[in-house]
Specification:
Number of helices: 5
CATH class of the largest domain: Mainly Beta
CATH topology of the largest domain: Immunoglobulin-like
Distance between the termini: 83 Å
Number of strands: 24
Strand order of the largest sheet: 8-11-10-13-14
Shape: globular
Number of domains: 3
Largest sheet: 5 strands, mixed
Order of helices and strands: HHHEEEEEEEHEEEEEEEEEHEEEEEEEE
Radius of gyration: 25 Å
Structural class: mainly beta
CATH superfamily of the largest domain: Carboxypeptidase-like, regulatory domain
Amino acid sequence: MTRPATTRRACSATWIALWLSCGASVVICSPRAARAQGAIEVMVSSAGGAPGSGTATATGSGRTVSCRVVSGRCEISPLPPGSYTVTVVAPGSAPVRRPVTVVRGTVAVRFVVSSSPDGVSRSPVDAVAARGGRDLGAGSRLVVQGTATFTSGTPATGTVDVLRGPQEVGRTRVNTGRYSIYDLDPGGYELVFTPSGKAPMRRSVSVGRAPVTVNFVVSEEEAGGLGVRVERQVPGGRDLSAGRRLVIQGLATTMRGTPAAGVVEVRAGGALVGTARVVTGRFTIHDLAPGSYRLTLRPEAGQPIDRNVEVGSAPINVSFVVR
């Protein structure tokens, strides 16, 4: 059936109004197109792990969208699905670029900016590409997370390489004592943590559906250059800072609010069950059976602090303030 001319004109006017309100195309305003929009979360830090600043720009799919990096983060949105080149320009560094594919939702992309002697700023992605692996420090599905510290609790820096058999899958950077690995297929892998200027440390890990935690503790002897390798060794009982089921997480700070360092001891009925190291003011405890426990924070500076906790089916939060 043919619509009257007045009806056709009214419909045309409506679509023109929609076109003008969007500034470009009615497709962007349609509900289906709106749901298909994505975003890129940009994370920027220096080689030493400090949050970066500057500007991040995504170019592709016929558009250029930018955001200002504040405290190491910003989000470029909205973006239709497609291929983009993200460029990060930080003060004092040359631009760093990498390709990103947007499908739906938010894609996290990490940049580490630093100036090299030839004046070219490189990110860990460039180093991985040169070795044939890929950057595993960002993605859509977290599979492994962990910390890397010296026995004093001081955060370590370096690189975690991921191997499957003899082949390198990729790598991720350890910044301020923490790292994350994304988007590995289920199966067995070997993690090789190489502290800056020190001997590598190896750990085997089985990747499944839930994220696993793998912590590395570098001995002070290694920090002094003697090359002694220590992995997840916390004196006194088993290491509780890694496992499959998180039961306790918490913070340890000074009176001024700065992160504290030390060890949390876990006892049941007076018997030492294990310990967890405090890294940059944070700690996690895994795989405790339900029941009553006593936590004792032994900070590097200050008096020990005790807390009584009841572990159940859900993780609990515990905070310590060191005097």
